[in-house]
Design a protein that fits this description.
- There is one protein chain.
- The longest helix is centred in the C-terminal third of the chain and has 37 residues.
- The chain contains eleven helices and no strands.
- The chain is about 70% helix and about 0% strand.
- Helix 7 crosses helix 8 and helix 10 packs antiparallel against helix 11.
Length: about 270
């Protein structure tokens, strides 16, 4: 055997063995997708205003035992926990929206009627415009609050956000209606200075109360949802509490500004 033949045989031994045709044409096994439960609602785990799991989303809030639940009127005035319980129950949100809108519209109209009577205005146009202006102010505040909640990874569902806005405005409207008789008395003493100044003070006070009530409602929703997941004595983590408080503070300022401007605009018309 010559040296050339020996080199050829050595090269053939170094070549890899041929694979079967079936093995060459077999498709590569596809990677199995993650289980549906592990990836469901993954993005929503970042927000403290939405339940973490689908089981908690469908769960109804615990019923009160041994104590009578506060009424809606009491919730508007003194018990924000009763409003929070209704906000977290999808079946009770429509009734809350209707009641809050009715209270807001009636109290705003009653306040403007007192001003019309106190100033002896010939037109009753402010009575009809006041509820509309307040509802438009709430609609104007929804967009910035929702956008801020998305940017802060603390998205608030629009249904709960709208209902919370109406409930907060109902609290401010009740305060305005309660202050109307005192403002009418002040207008009787001085229509040039004290009367308008008392109106401005009432607008600012009602708008501030509405903003603070919205802050308490949003923080109450975040805490109640976390307690539903982790237990009745659990508290929000520092990161979740900071994000929720950021959105709640922005909502407080936005609602206070828009409602105060709407009340002043409706009276100036």
């Amino acid at each position: 055997m010559t040296a050339a033949q020996a080199d050829v045989e050595m090269s053939l031994k170094l070549l890899p063995e041929p694979r079967p045709a079936a093995e060459l044409t077999a498709p590569a096994p596809a990677s199995s997708p993650p289980p549906p439960k592990a990836r469901a609602h993954r993005a929503e785990e970042l927000t403290p205003f939405v339940a973490w799991s689908s089981e908690a989303r469908s769960a109804r809030p615990p019923e009160l035992t041994g104590a009578r639940e506060a009424s809606l009127f009491d919730g508007f005035l003194n018990a924000p926990e009763a409003i929070v319980d209704r906000l977290l129950s999808p079946e009770r949100v429509p009734a809350l929206v209707v009641a809050a809108a009715a209270v807001t519209a009636s109290c705003a109209a009653a306040y403007e009627a007192a001003l019309v009577w106190g100033f002896h205005l010939p037109s009753a146009r402010p009575i009809a415009m006041a509820p509309l202006m307040i509802l438009l102010a709430e609609a104007a505040a929804v967009g910035p609050i929702f956008a801020a909640s998305v940017l802060a990874a603390a998205r608030i569902p629009l249904a709960r956000l709208g209902a919370a806005l109406l409930a907060a405005s109902a609290t401010g409207a009740l305060l305005m209606a309660a202050l109307a008789p005192a403002i009418v008395v002040v207008i009787g003493f001085d229509r040039e200075w004290l009367g308008p100044l008392s109106m401005v003070a009432a607008f600012l006070l009602a708008a501030s109360v509405s903003g603070l009530r919205l802050y308490r409602l949003l923080m109450g929703m975040a805490e109640r949802l976390y307690q539903r997941e982790a237990g009745p004595t659990a508290r929000l983590s520092p990161a979740d509490a900071e994000r929720a408080a950021l959105v709640a503070r922005l909502a407080c300022m936005s609602v206070g500004f828009t409602l105060g401007l709407a009340c002043w605009t409706s009276s100036s018309l």
